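user: can you give me the structure for this one chain? tokens are fine.
assistant: on it. calling the predictor now.
[tool input]
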Amino acid sequence: MVELAPQLTWADNLWAGVSCGLREYYSRLDDLRKIPAVVRFWSYEPALESANDVDLTDIDWVIAGGESGWRARPADDHWFREIRDKCKAAGTPFFFKQHGDVYARAHKIRKEHGGNLLDGQHPEEFPKPTYGRKLIDLLPALIQIDDGRNMAPEPQLNNDDHREPVTPEVLTAEEPGSRPNVDTEPQEPRRGIVELIEEYITDYVSVRRPNFGLPISLWALATHCHMQFRAFGFLVFTGEEYGSAKTYMLEILQQLVKDGRLLSGITLSAMCSDIEVNHPTLLIDQAEGLGKEETKLMRVMQSGYKQGATYTVRQGNSNLVRSVYGPKAFALIGDLPRPAMDRSIAITMERRTPKKVRDENEGDWNERGERIRTLAAVAITIRKQDIDTAVFNFRAPEFLNGREIEIWKPLLVMCDLFAPNRRAELEQTAVDLSVAKLKEGRKITQAEAIRRAETRTYSERLVKDIYMLYGEEHGIRTEEALERLKQLPNNPWRNYADVGLTDIKMAQLLKAQGIRSRQMKMHGINRNSYLKADLEQAVKSFTAQACA
């Protein structure tokens, strides 16, 4: 129901409810609170245990009853009194249907003859609808409008609807005399959907430059309305080595985009079928295999950034036209072919330490990602008409040329609607990323990418380990360093590259960090040594990068 809510028109005659008679199903009430129906009701039936600890916040109506049927289980009258009193305290209408068949058979009565009699009364209260509810009022982030303020849009009423319009302030307040306001703690300023997406991304991946998080976030948001744009540029995460979080970035996007499909390989037929049926966001990992100019799949994908792009296949005696348009993100070592890069927003990734690690925050990763994706879908649904208007009125910016205007248009529109105060930041970032593609395309072999990743990882480790070996001395001889390194606990040097760290390999790894051996007189003899000051400077550099 929560997933379908953004796609439905919540008319005033459409009420929503859930049924749960056991505590283990209380999560259904949390889902119900996210639905913008004018009445949200909880059916506490069949009542199978006490519900005295239930939270009735934002529940408009409670219906209670025992179980029916020849195999019915008994209900305790005390449970119904508890929930009746709880509803009264909260100002929530309470409707008591029946004690249940066990009670009816024991007292030889029927429901209409006293089966819903409770303490001499027939509780049959009905709810008062709360008109004008919007999805945006029920979720933890408000959507920013053009003046940059966080507030909900005013409800749209039909011409024949004579109710008074409900202002945004009233939407989040309780009706006078209904239920007490238990949330008296001061609230933090609400952030827009773009900031929520960006914060989630940068928590788990440290991007090369801080401003790169904005276009990634806007691209993810725009996937929820990509059919409203004539063209939708690719998003490419590239790097020169393994371990730079390219695949990790696609996994994060899968949590945020519309119907994300994380793939390491795909056939042309499967891609077309998925696009035609589901309009998904394709997240293609290990895209190096698509990097050959003659690859048919790559050529078709290159045309798939524009709406209306098709691929014609021969089927029997006729031609079948297949659709190929839709959002696509790629992760690879090196670059895609030049025609594909011209249709892309390309972001170079580097090995950096993120704020959070997924394996240590699995709950946050899944729950927060799902919540933000729902928020994004809601935000787009609410402002669909605004998006159409912004697309129609779009004027090409002077700072972009040719195809760059097409691929940045969705992001500029999203920024204007959901983060207007960051337009200048996005414009400069668009220029930076556009001119960065003027460099020559990189073709990096798998072996070279692995070598670079290993060099970076182990060169940093080697610098830190050698630095730990220093005492009061100002330098350490190569032979002594090798011997002492292999005695450190849990060290990788004893069997490095299956033969153990050598003086030549050590020199290569340290050279990658700008450190070279020097001739130093020790005990009257000149020997190749590494100075403490050189390694200390490198360690400080690592610390500064980690803090940044």
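assistant: here you go. The two ends are 43 Å apart (CA to CA). The CA atoms of residues 282 and 407 lie 16 Å apart.
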